[in-house]
Amino acid sequence: MSKKKKDNNLKLLCFVLFLGGLIQTDASFGVGGGVGVGIGGGGGVWIGGGYNNGGNRNAGPGSVQNSVAYNALQAWKSAITEDPSGVLKTWVGSDVCSYKGVFCSGQTITSIDLNHANLKGTLVRDLALLSDLNILHLNSNRFSDQIPDSFKNLVSLQELDLSNNLLSGPFPLVTLYIPNLEYLDLRFNSFSGLIPEELFNKRLDAILLNNNQFAGEIPRNLGNSPASVINLANNRFSGEIPTSFGLTGSRVKEVLLLNNQLTGCIPESVGMFSEIQVFDVSYNSLMGHVPETISCLSAIEILNLAHNKFTGEVPDLVCSLRSLINLTVSFNFFSGFSSECYSRISFGFDFVGNCIPGRNSQRPQPDCSGYSGGAMSCFRIPTQPLACAAISVGLKEGNDQYTSSLP
């Protein structure tokens, strides 16, 4: 080999090594980067190098996951037909964490909050690919149809708020299979039909189903729920309030059953809700006497029994509850109340539209004398004087004997 050719090969080798040094100092190059040197009769040289993440020099370890999230959100975006506020104009490019309403921890989507965005469209099965999503808040939009079955794969989801939309169909059973769900809000939609017993066995802290078209009887295991808030108001539920209500010693804070078609008595077991603050059964067709066990609700602040068919006297013990701020018994058939209740008149005690002699704004006498209360017979705890600590024993022994019947 001539000296000139050797010199040329030496120069070429030095040049290749120089480039190789540059490549190794660039941290953004991926595993695919490399240098190949061929020295032979033809003097061939190959230098290989590139980004292993599709050309995004800033992408980190979560780039593959972000690609999945990008595809999921773009699939959802394509199913949204109206965006009057222009929220989705920011949903462009691979940086999903910069999208409006999308919140990340590092490069991982953990929350989507599009409340009050007024979006019209449907929910897509691809959203289930967001396996690290903790919170999905979509209230006050115009999403229609049903919740995809794939949502059961949202294994990290804790809060699901789909209230005030146009969702319809039967109760979305898929929500029962979201393993870590704690907050379920389906208010103000058009769901209909029965609600499943499994709902009240699930470890939910909030069950908000009001303002739908649910019907049928409330499942017997209502009292099993560990939820602090249960709102079934403004539906079409019928039948009696389950007698198990309260027997499990629930820590519920609010129970709202107003504006349904409930009949029968208020169960004595309601007195076991030692931490309840709001109990509203107004606008139903409940009958009989108000159970004195309500006087055991030491934390109650709002008690609304209005627009039912209750009879007898408003119990003195009920009016003596010290945390009570508002007691509403209007538009029933109560025949009187005690001095303790009278002393609360100026403190949120509404008793108009009853049959109380000598009081203003009562029903006409013919209405009162012609109503017998439906001859409703309600189970009563034979404990005099009432001992709240003994309610649990008395109720569990008498639960099987509970009857409310029309002769």
UniProtKB/TrEMBL annotation:
Q: Which residue numbers delimit the Leucine-rich repeat-containing N-terminal plant-type domain?
A: 71-105
The family database entries (PROSITE patterns) matched by this protein are listed as: LRR
Give the matching InterPro entries: Leu-rich_rpt (IPR001611), LRR_dom_sf (IPR032675), LRR_extensin-like_regulator (IPR051582), LRR_N_plant-typ (IPR013210)
Main localization of the protein described in the UniProt heading: secreted
From the Swiss-Prot or TrEMBL record, state where the protein is found: Secreted, Cell wall
Keyword annotations: Cell wall, Cell wall biogenesis/degradation, Hydroxylation, Leucine-rich repeat, Repeat, Secreted, Signal
Signal peptide residues are 1-27
**Name of this protein:** Cell wall hydroxyproline-rich glycoprotein
Organism of provenance = Camelina sativa
Lineage in the entry? Answer: Eukaryota, Viridiplantae, Streptophyta, Embryophyta, Tracheophyta
